[in-house]
Amino acid sequence: MLAELYFKRCPNCWKMLAVAVCMVLLACLQAQDLQGHVSIILLGATGDLAKKYLWQGLFQLYLDEVGKGYSFSFHGAALTSTKQGQEFVAKVLESLSCPEDVAPERCAELRGRFQQLSQYRRLRTREDYIALSRDIEAQLQHEGLREAGRIFYFSVPPFAYADIARSINSSCRPGPGAWLRVVLEKPFGHDRLSAQQLATELGSFFQEEEMYRVDHYLGKQAVAQILPFRDQNRKALDGLWNRHHVERVEIIMKETVDAEGRTGFYEEYGVIRDVLQNHLTEVLTLVAMELPYNVSSSEAVLRHKLQAFQALRGLHKDSAVLGQYQAYSGQVRREQQKPDSFHSLTPTFAGILVHMDNLRWEGVPFILMSGKALDERVGYVRILFRNQAYCAQTEARWVADQSQCLPRQIVFYIGHGELGSPAVLVSRNLFRPSLPSESWKEVEGRPGLHLFGRPLSDFYAYSPVREQDAYSVLISHIFHGRKDSFITTENLLASWAFWTPLLDSLAHEAPRLYPGGAENGHLLDFEFTGTQLRFSQQQPEQLLPGPGSAPSPSDFQVLQSKYRDSPLISAWPEELIAKLADDIEATAMRAVRRFGEFHLALSGGSSPVPLFQQLATRHYGFPWAHTHLWLVDERCVPLRDPESNFQGLQAHLLQHVRVPYYNVHPMPVHLHQRLCAEEDQGAQMYASEISALVTNSSFDLVLL
């Protein structure tokens, strides 16, 4: 009644109220539309990485997000003086480019706006970070903006991380309700211990969800397509993506350039730490991990990746072959002022044989290879499937999309090489793959082009509709909070736990020298048997200095002597292991013929590993089904511990031969949830088991 009376007295008030309501609604819509302001601080803004990739990546982010509700400011920062830094950044910003589908006039306009939003400042002291935070807050207040978050991109050496992290944490965090994202570039440590120390230090300043460790390989378009491809082709791949159908997986990154100009870095890291421990291992987990039900869930993807890391079988010295291009040591001597007598042991080439200990991939070799000064620049992931078909007709009559006798493979072609661009290739005799048509297109035929020994026409081939730089892809993922494209602390430490023992075992190994480029010939070709990798061409070792050919093992006589009235055999390790394995098999055969079973007691540690490998890969007539295996000693650790003698026996012998589980007798060191407790009487239990199963408690053969 009061409202009625009021509006009768003021007929124009209805119009005024309607206008007010509209203004309020418009303001609400604008507030919804403007999602907040993001400040991006590029630390190391005058460095090489920033110049080549990061400024362009930030510009691409701006192009992708302009008009979508966010406002931006870009702060280039470094130790360079303000004047020099401003000149450098201005020059870089002038060179920024747009995708081909953006008109030149529109590109110039957007680049101009980006330049206006970008500035350079010197960041060195804590006071500098306080001033930066105040400037950001003043801009927000002046323009009436709500802060969405801040991104700090660390394009600086790892030794600077701690001081910068401390300054950000104490003086430059965003206000309540806004997020912080800190982007870190590799290397993330030198081994597991240094990685753990760095992670602990950073963890004292930042939460795990705030840290984004970059591996730029995860931004490569072909690599980024691995999980979506597996997801979109689940039905076709479900029965194929396993040990029953996959013959092997190759993960390769070859370079033609050498390490000249970077020998300081390379002497500290080498090819395994530089490429295999990060880039290639990350790719391996994408291929080998169990596929989550929802691949768009970062949490699920990262959890499944960690499970893949945990399934990696431990590496040993024989899992690797190493090389070094011949000019490398000379380059190190010049660049690092080393004496003329200096010869580096740092590998510039490595091939690694990896196995997974799970039901899906048991027995499937994963070959990781990378090197410098090779014959071509190329990167790819190749899944080669077993060929179990026989075709009665001659090869000339085989049809690519019908014949099961042609090679069957899926290739994620990362770039360069004969094809020259990223691609996904699927053999026509497998299935027609499904890829998103808005981002991938079929490759046009290129007569005469052969890949992996087959013409391109043998494949369904797809390439990106628009090629994107890896850093542009990753910067977009950082902005959108997609953690699955980055390396968590847990996954980082799992990777270093896998690689560090191998790196330690290879620290004093001399790599094979190779001339570089096309002259390498077949010198770096390698082959694998079981868990061992070796070069296909044996390079004679110079055992004694001086002219003439080097002696070989067969030039040395086996010493004949006695030890406790038994023959004592002394020989080169290879001959000695082969002889010992032959003798063990002969003893086993005699025992089985006479008694129906063979009792073998084995020692632990690293010494018997070559023997285990010899027995597993060269003695297929061994009577394993009638063999009982015992241990002569054990460490006070759980049987699943890598230090356990039983675990060594399992890794190097048991999983490769068929010994009935009831014939394997580990020592009972872990009873009642405790280790080697005297009151548990583990030794007495083992003695009773031996007495019950072994005639006269006397083994047929004991290896000490």
In brief:
This protein is 37% helix and 20% strand. The chain has 704 residues and is α/β, with parallel strands linked by helices.
Commentary on this structure:
- This protein is of the alpha/beta class and 704 residues long.
- The protein contains 20 helices and 28 strands.
- A ten-stranded mixed β-sheet has the order 14-17-13-12-11-7-10-9-8-18.
- The longest helix has 26 residues, at 263-288.
- It is globular.
- The relative contact order is 0.08.
Uncertain regions: pLDDT < 50 for 5+ in a row?
21-33, 540-558
Secondary-structure content class: alpha/beta
Using the alpha-carbon principal axes, give the shape: globular
Number of helical segments with 4 or more residues: 20
Q: Beta-sheet strand percentage?
A: 15-25%
How many beta-strand segments? 28
Q: Could you tell me the mean pLDDT?
A: 88
Largest sheet: 10 strands, mixed
Proportion of helical residues: 25-40%
Distance between the termini: 105 Å
Rg (C-alpha, Å):
32 Å
Q: Please give the order of strands in the largest beta sheet.
A: 14-17-13-12-11-7-10-9-8-18
Q: Strands, helices and their partners?
A:
Layout: H1 2-9, H2 13-33, E1 36-43, H3 48-65, E2 70-78, H4 82-94, H5 104-117, E3 118-122, H6 126-143, E4 147-154, H7 161-171, E5 179-185, H8 192-203, E6 211-214, H9 221-224, H10 226-232, H11 234-237, E7 246-254, H12 263-288, H13 298-310, E8 320-325, H14 328-335, E9 349-354, E10 366-371, E11 378-385, E12 409-416, E13 423-427, E14 440-442, E15 450-451, E16 454-455, E17 459-464, H15 470-479, H16 489-506, E18 512-514, E19 526-529, E20 532-535, E21 559-563, E22 566-570, H17 573-595, E23 598-602, H18 609-618, E24 627-631, H19 645-652, E25 664-665, E26 670-671, E27 674-675, H20 682-693, E28 701-702
Parallel strand pairs: 1-2, 1-4, 2-3, 4-5, 5-6, 7-10, 8-18, 23-24, 23-28, 24-25
Antiparallel strand pairs: 7-11, 8-9, 9-10, 11-12, 12-13, 13-17, 14-17, 15-16, 19-20, 21-22, 26-27
